[in-house]
Amino acid sequence: MPVFRGPRRARERRTSRIPGAAGVPAPARALLGALPGLAAVAALFLCANGVQRAADAQSADAAPAAATDRYAAPRPDIVPRSVWLGDAARAQPAPRYDDKVVAVFVHHTDTPNDYDCADVPAILRGVYQGQTGARDWDDIGYNFVVDRCGTVYEGRAGGIDRAVTGAHTQGFNHRTTGIAALGTYTAGVPVPDELTDAIAAVTAWKLGESGTDPRGKAVLVSSNGLSRFAAGATATLPAVAGHDDGYATSCPGAALTARLGDIRDTAARLQGRA
Question: What is the pTM of this model?
């Protein structure tokens, strides 16, 4: 005859689902029953900790970008190379690029100063032909050229807004921009304010993209021993340097070298620095 035993107690139903629980003392059975809840609490803790770490990482990544944006300067008006070069361009390899620009080298082109600014495109074609012809370079070496009237011209191909690797300073063409003053600025030659102001504007814009203070220093690595530093050597140079800071030359001339301080200060002001 079937015997009705009645419903099992709730506690017995829970513990019977754990294999071997029948022979386990009551306090131990209670601890085993609590394990799923403890695991859930631990999981919640780990999840919250992971979210916090991710948020901290995102904040750290955003900090350099915010610092860079703070000192961004507007891009000055720049005449594209197609305007002055036209169909005189010769076949050349694809441009090379760096990840950013942290220093500017200032040059002069060592050409006559008594030019009419309307004639600059023709003069630039002459500079281009001299560097790609007699010197057999693949392109004009300077990233930008500025005339005495303050007009800025795109030099080396690759894109005005990009960190194009130039061919302007032996050993230090990477992570730098070369800006050439059209003319010869040796000792005693007047340097027009329009020219230095335009160089400063390009400098502020290019260095602002990496958050570099034009009045500060830049750490660069020499790529070859023809510079003032051995190949592979680390050099700490002015963020706005003269050609002769990296290479044994008289460029950019004593008169323009004397104005580098003014260029640094003007560029820093354009970046909004105190």
Answer: 0.77
Asked if residues 247 and 173 have their Cβ atoms less than 8 Å apart, the reply is no
217 strand-pairing partners: 238
Q: Decide: residue 133, CB within 10 A, 0-12 exposed, 13-18 middle, 19+ buried.
A: exposed
C-alpha distances in Å from residue 57, one per residue of 3, 45, 65: 66, 18, 13
In whole angstroms, give the CA distance from residue 246 to residue 177: 13
CATH of region 78-270, choose from 3.40.50.1100, 3.40.80.10, 3.40.50.700, 3.90.1150.10? 3.40.80.10
> Please, what sign has the CA dihedral across residues 210, 219, 156, 202?
positive
SS3 181: strand
**Range scoring the smallest mean pLDDT among 35-49, 112-126, 235-249, 250-264:** 35-49
**How far is the C-alpha of 112 from the C-alpha of 131, rounded, in Å?**
17
Integer Cα distance of 136 and 11 in angstroms = 91
pLDDT at position 175: 98
Q: Which residue's entry shows tokens 């700490």? A: 236
The CB density around residue 81, as the number of other CB atoms within 10 Å, is 22
Residue range 46-52: average pLDDT?
A: 39
From the list 148, 111, 116, the residue with the least C-alpha distance to 128 is 111
